Each structure stands twice: as C-alpha cells, then as structure tokens.
Amino acid sequence: MTADDFGPVLAKAHAHATAYLTAQPERHVGARCSHAELDGVLRTPLTSRGEDPAAVIDLLAGQAGNAAVACGSPRYFGFVIGGTYPVALAADWLVSSWDQNAGLYAISPLCSVAEDVAGDWLLDLFDLPRESEVGFVTGCQMANFTCLAAARHGVLARVGWDVEADGLCGAPKVNIVTSAESHVTVDVALRYLGFGTRSLLRVESDDQGRMRVDRLQELMQTLEGPTIICAQAGNVNTGAFDPLREIAQLASAHGAWLHVDGAFGLWARASERLAGLADGIELADSWATDAHKWLNVPYDCGVAIVRHAEDHRKAMTSTAAYLIQTRGAERDPVDWVPEFSRRARGVPVYATLRALGRDGVRDLVERCCDRARQMAQALGAHPGIEILNEVVLNQVLVRFGDDDALTRAVIEGVQKDGTCWLSGTTWHGMGAMRISVSNWQTTEADAAASVAAILRVFEEVKRLGEA
C-alpha cells in the first residue's frame, strides 16, 4: 500500500466535496434532472477490467449539483433533516478511513469507548436516568425497534415468558397502546417485532396531535396483563408533545412499560426554555431519537436509550463461541443494537457534542425554533394564509386559501422555484405545507428569503387560477 493508492482519489473526492459544500448555501435547493437523464449518465454495462477510480469519482460528483437535493442547505425545510456540522463531517470521514467494525470492543477499543462516552453525554444532556444504556443505530426506525424489543422482553419476562427463547407463539398477550397520531416508524417497529398493527390500541388525539390522557385512562382501566404504551415527544406535523408526565403516571400505576418516540422532540431537553414541553419524559422506560436530525451529524445515526440495562441487553445481544466479548468495564456495542457489523456512527456524535458543548447544542435547538416562529408569523400575517398548528417547536403547518388544490400547487411551485425546499402533508383531512427547521446554518435572512419565495409563488398560483 502506498500513498499513490489513496492520495490522488481522496484528494479528488476532497476537492469535489469542498466545491459542493461551498456552493450548497446558494444553489437551487431541489434536484433539477429527470430520472431518465440521470439513468442515462449512470447506467452502463459493467466492464471486465474496470475503470479509472478518479474518473468514477468525477462522474459521481458531476451529478451532485443537479441530481442531489441540497438537504444540507440552510433553506431545506422538507421532512426533519438536519445539516452537517463541519466537525461531524470530518469525524465521519475518519470513521470511513478507519473502517472499523464497531460491534466489539476487541475489534475497535477506540470506537467502543468513544460511543460509550457519547452515550453518557446524551443522558446528561437530556437529563435522563444515568443508569440507562445507549445504542447507536441507523435512525429512529431502528431506535424504536430496539427500545420496543427491550420493552417486549421486559413485560414478558415479568410474567415468566422468555420471548427470545420461546418466541411469541403461545406467549401471554401483550397490549400495545399508541396514539392515533404516532409516527409510522412505531407501527413498523411493532410489525418487525411480530405484534402486527391490527391489534394496536389507538388512543384519540387532540387538535394538535397530543394523546388524550382521559381517553388513555379509560382504556387502561379495561386492560389486563403485559402492556406497552408508546407516547410521542414532537408530533411529526405539529411538533406537539403528548402530556408525558400524566401518561407516565398512568403507566406506572398499571405496571406498563412507557416508550417515548422523540425523534426530534427529545432535543428540546437540551434547552431550559423548551424543556418544559417534555416535562415528565424522564419517567419513561425507553426513548428513541435521531442525531442526524437536530444534532446535525451525517446520515445515518439514530439513538436508542433504555432505562433497564438487562432488558436492553437480553433483547439485543449476540453471542457465539468464536467471539471475544467483554464482561468488565469494556463495552461491546453489539449488546445494545440489532446490527452485528456496523460503522462507528457514535463517533461523529462524540465529536459534535465535544465541539459544541451544552451551550452550543442549546443554541442550535433554540435558533431553529426561532426561525420556525419567524416564518410562521410572517406567513400567517399574509391574507389567505393560515397557520394550522401552535408553533411550539420547529414545525410549521401552512394552508393556502383554505383549499387543498391551491395548497398543493403552492408546494409544487415552491419546490420548482428552488429558493427553498419543503414538503406537503395531510393534517386532519386538510392539505398543508409542512416546514421543518433543523439546520444549524439557517439564519434570519434564510427564513426571510424563503418566506418571500413562498409568498411570491402563492400570488402567482392565485393569479393563474383567476385568469
């Protein structure tokens, strides 16, 4: 191995990456090429002898400006996608360079200890029980899966059933209680775990998507046996929080396991100003969140947190005679996540938390919420535009002319305009524009420019409709 094997192609990739990142804040935010165009460039018969690596990198990088949506743009408000802090990206490059299988301490002491420390920092930042265990997974889908696997183990073990050994066939029935507006990843996790979705007990939500405690209380009085309650910190449309303290008290009174899906809402705990939204969340048994959302580390990085270490370990761990596994202070990440072979996705979390500190994370979360309110106030002041939700966090729902077709047309027009990119949703039967602010780079000027573009498209769409 020589410098010539890596140096030229890595230097070329670095140059392309720097050019992409430098141009990203000012570029058209959406993609601007068709599937046919992109397929025509990328699809070719696989050659026998291969091609020049530098040429391959040039080919891929050459498509990014038109075919990659600028999700890291300060004016990208689609879904809940964060940008990437420079230190997080640099740490992620190191992870790829080290190429460690981060499943076992014996394979990578560096990655194991870095993830262990990062997990402890997150518990401290969120003020969750310090005895909790933390696993770094691909995203909140697998974080919910991991936490609910621990919940499945825990509630069945309490009634004498070993689900890992004996499966679910013949097991005591587990009651699964969710909000009517729980995120789809909770449903999917429960499917993966063998519960299915038809038997889920849905609790009515209020006009902001919060679980109604009175309805939950009525339901709990009818249930017997092992029970798992799934609550939400940060509704995917409105940003609203379920009344977590009251739900936790009900769960405790009925001996139920409480899991909280806090994909982005858990980060409110990093802010004294916003932490009250998640009051009582520390009373839960497990929590799921994403680092690639509000912490602004590269994809992919989700976080599964479980209060009860043994339930967590027994639900997840893998053992085999040929493995070298620890039983001391060393920590094997494979004990806490579904994946055996995995990249060290906790390392960028470590780097970002260490670089930002508590104040940096707090400022990031609060700035994004401020920009969401700025956009909501400016749009809501315009005739014919309604803000549908209480803007408590970083989510804004916008409706135009009280008309589904008009709203969809404005969303499509804004996406084509390219000043910013945002998505649509259906909220309580109404079409709505959904604005999610979660990028560390988004400034007041970015928010103002995006509002101006939205208003411009709105007026153009109305004018065309009246013509």
TrEMBL record:
Reported cofactor(s): pyridoxal 5'-phosphate
SUPFAM superfamilies per the UniProt record, alphabetical: PLP-dependent transferases
InterPro entries on file: Aromatic_deC, PyrdxlP-dep_de-COase, PyrdxlP-dep_Trfase, PyrdxlP-dep_Trfase_major, PyrdxlP-dep_Trfase_small
Record-level Gene Ontology MF annotations: carboxy-lyase activity; pyridoxal phosphate binding
Species name: Dokdonella immobilis
Pfam families: Pyridoxal_deC
PTM sites of type N6-(pyridoxal phosphate)lysine: K293
Name of the protein: Glutamate or tyrosine decarboxylase
BP-aspect Gene Ontology terms: carboxylic acid metabolic process
Lineage: superkingdom: Bacteria
Coiled-coil residues: none
Keywords from the named record: Decarboxylase, Lyase, Pyridoxal phosphate
Family: Belongs to the group II decarboxylase family.
